Amino acid sequence: MVPFATSAGRLPRAVVIEHTVKLYQAFTVEAILDELGIEWRNPKEAPGSWLPIEGFDSDDFETRLPDEWLELMRQAGNKPLKARALCKDPNNEEKCEWYPVKVVDYDAERGLYKINFVESPSSGGFIHRVKLFIHGEDPRVFANRYANACLLYTSDAADDMQCVDLGGRRNIKKKKK
Predict the structure, then answer these.
(1) Which end of the chain has fewer CB atoms at under 10 Å, N or C?
(2) What is the pTM of this model?
C-alpha cells in the first residue's frame, strides 16, 4: 500500500502507482506459469490444475483479504473488479484458458468469489481464489501461489494425506535408524 501523504524525498503516490502498474504489465500469469513449468492449458496433462488444488492453497500469498477486495469495489461505486479466471473451455474439455471476468461478490461461508464472464455477462458462477487473478495484484505473487498449490497437490505429500498439515506444508517424518 502506498500512503496518500508522502514525506519529503519520497516519490509522489501517483508516480509510485504508475511505476507499479507498468511493472505488473510487464508480466503475465501465463508466461510466469510456463517459466515455472506448470502446465495449465491441458487438464489431462495437469491433474493438479483440475483436481481439488484448493485445499493446498495458501493465504500466505494473499495481498488483500476478501473484505478488502470488496471494499475496493464499493469505493469504485460498486463496480465489479476486473479479473481473469482459469476455466475449462466450454467447447473443448481438453483445453483451458484465463477468461476475463468481473468479480461481483464473495461468499464467505463457502470461501468462493462470485464472478460473471465478460463475454457473456449473464453467465458466471463461483470460483476459488487460487484460480482467480484479480487485476491490480502482482502477477508474480499470484503465479507462485497457483504453482505452489499445484506442486503441493501433485507431490508425494498429496498421496499420503498424513504428511500434509492443514496449512498445506509438508511434514517430513525422519526415519529412525
Answers:
(1) C
(2) 0.69
